[in-house]
Amino acid sequence: MRLTMGNGSSDVERTKLFAKWLLDVGEGNVGGCSDGDVLIDIPDDLVISNSSDPLFDLIDFHLHANFDHNLYSPDVLNGLKLSGLPNHKLQLKVGVPVMLLRNIDQRNGLCNGTRLQIISLGDRVIEAEIISESNIGTRAFITRIPLPPSDKKIPFKFQRRQFPIVVCF
How far is the C-alpha of 144 from the C-alpha of 125, rounded, in Å? Predict the structure, then answer.
């Protein structure tokens, strides 16, 4: 039902036919009697041929041909938990130990993996004190920065503007 919203009547009909075929496959109604192994004919318009990475091509085709902004709403994007990105919602308080996720200022000891303790919180800046490495006791100011995910297999580009830290446990 979600796929048919906002589409023309021919697209809705094709989507309904695909949904019916997919349900029939899932329920074992396609391919004849099953003793565990069944050959199923896949319609030609669904087959990706001559590809070195068919899964990536499928995702790439779907996103470029049918990018649905409702499917990738801010709520969906904010809920993604990806390598190299802090969560969308970062709950901090004074005194909490945190770890940097990016190299900010290597000369002053603000490197990926450096541990800090929160001194004060602002809307756009966090004041913290380094509690690891060679610069223990040095105070630093951390601002929000654009952070793209480090996973290159995500089929679309986006970034979060967030403090490059994660809470240490």
Answer: 7
Give the integer Cα–Cα distance in Å for 73 and 162.
18
Q: Are residues 56 and 97 located together in one domain of the fold?
A: no
Query: Alpha-carbon distance 48 to 45, whole Å?
Result: 8
Residue-wise pLDDT tens for the chain (169 aa)?
555 555 566 667 877 888 888 888 877 777 776 666 777 777 777 777 777 777 777 666 655 555 555 666 777 778 888 777 778 888 899 999 999 988 998 888 899 999 999 999 998 899 999 998 888 999 999 999 988 887 777 767 778 888 999 898 7
- pTM for this one? 0.55
Query: What is the C-alpha separation between 117 and 119, in angstroms, rounded?
Result: 6
My answer on whether 21 and 95 are in the same domain is no
Angle at 81 between CA 77 and CA 84, to 5 degrees: 110
Looking at the fold, whether 62 and 118 belong to one and the same domain comes out as no
Strand order in the sheet with 115-121: 139-143, 125-130, 115-121, 97-100, 165-167
Q: Are residues 51 and 6 in the same domain?
A: yes
Host domain of residue 48 = 2-74
